[in-house]
Design goal:
The protein is of the alpha+beta class and 395 residues long. The protein has 15 helices and twelve strands. A hairpin with an 8-residue loop joins strand 10 and strand 11.
Length: 395
């Protein structure tokens, strides 16, 4: 048994030494709890792209539930979504979602820039110190994602609370209290989304992704639509907020790279890719073997679960030169920050665009960006992000 645990809360601040140890000592590791953990880039990418690996929610989220036991409310919702669908059903979800996101995004040209600029105005008015997560990353992600979905501005606060509770409830480190809160949030958001869909259909208000999907020829049931919208809201807001916070911290910790980006703003696109490789927000995903599948020198039996450590794969020296160095000019960068294969993020282009706006606006409006205290990390392992990032700056 390995003497390290990648899920130990003491590793939240910096899990990468543990990932390095596991990748070096036992890259295909079978936990005493019965699941496998993969840390090499090649193995992780192979699992993500191989159709012999299932993303079925019942096997992943409630593998030990007996048929006579009730289904957790959150699991019942999420298992109907694109996130836990296998081909060919996955394509039935993905096609209308991609179309709706592309269409809604075209009507939002410049919206992220405007929101980011307004938030920076507020930061300057309040002084030259701020918690960049709570005052910038979180509201930016929430406002723009709510606009993309077509959800009213006055309801964003409640949606954010539900989203955070649902995200925490899906984490392997969740405790019983978190499970209960997530279940309650899932039931509340189902009722809310049903109301918004009904309103869109009754009023023919086809604004945003929700309106476009609600008014389209139904490839998805209403229940599946609610599940997909919930998944988009939760992952879109929480992951984007986490990514912006992680990216800002990485730039502060590497002032030479921040200075390089200021001098050469044309590096912004490659910078976003490198920042998500270096310390992206989604650190793991899971699959279940639909048949016996070889991985490295081992064979994962049918029905057993593997944890794909994306954060470890993105620091694998077998794939990336000098992987622990932030290099904003890195050209060869096929990271797994947005996944790979059928389940790669269908809204990746939108996420990239939003993050580019966040970083470009921040660096364009402040100078001498530095830490003004100790960063604090969320107590989750799937989503690696900061709960607090105190900074100081000059205009």
């Amino acid at each position: 048994m390995l003497p390290v645990n990648p899920f130990d809360r003491r590793a939240r601040r910096d899990p990468y030494p543990i990932y390095l140890y596991m990748r070096t000592v036992e890259p295909v590791y079978r936990s005493p709890l019965g699941f496998w953990i993969l840390t090499r880039y090649a193995d992780c990418r192979s699992v993500l792209e191989d159709p012999r690996w299932s993303h079925d929610a019942d096997n992943l989220l409630e593998p030990n539930r007996k048929p006579t036991e009730p289904v957790d409310p959150l699991v019942r919702l999420i298992r109907a979504s694109i996130a836990f669908s296998d081909p060919p059903d996955h394509a039935r979800h993905r096609r209308p979602l991609e179309t709706a996101v592309r269409s809604a995004s075209r009507g939002m040209a410049g919206q992220a820039d405007k929101v980011a600029s307004s938030l920076m105005d507020l930061l300057h008015e309040k002084g030259m110190t701020a918690d960049i997560v709570q005052a910038y990353a979180a509201p930016l992600a929430l406002y723009v994602m709510a606009d993309l979905l077509g959800l009213p501005a006055e309801e964003r606060g409640q949606l954010h609370r539900w989203g955070r509770e649902i995200a925490a409830g899906l984490d392997p480190a969740v405790q019983s209290g978190g499970v209960l809160r997530a279940g309650a949030a899932a039931m509340a958001i189902v009722e809310y989304m049903q109301g918004r869909i009904d309103a869109a259909r009754d009023g023919k208000d086809f604004k945003g992704v929700l309106g476009r999907l609600a008014g389209a020829t139904p490839r998805l049931s209403t229940w599946e639509l609610i599940a997909d919208l919930t998944t988009m809201l939760v992952t879109g807001v929480e992951a984007t907020c986490a990514f912006i916070g992680n990216a800002v911290l990485a730039l502060i910790a590497n002032p030479d790279q921040m200075a390089l980006l200021r001098r050469q703003p044309e590096l912004l696109n490659t910078s976003i890719e490198e920042l998500i490789r270096f310390d992206g927000p989604i650190h793991l995903t899971a699959r279940v073997a639909a048949e016996d599948v070889p991985v490295g020198k081992s064979t994962v039996p049918k029905g057993e679960q593997v944890i794909v450590l994306l954060g470890a794969a993105n620091r694998d020296p077998a794939r990336f030169v000098d992987p622990d160095r932030l290099d904003l000019a890195r050209a060869d960068n096929p990271h797994l920050g947005f996944g790979a294969g059928a389940h790669s993020c269908f809204a990746a282009a939108f996420a990239r665009s939003l993050t580019r706006s966040a970083i470009a606006t921040l660096l364009g409006r402040v100078s001498n960006l530095e830490l003004d205290g100790t960063p604090e990390w969320n107590d989750t392992v799937t989503l690696r992000g900061l709960s607090r990032l105190p900074v100081k700056f000059t205009a």
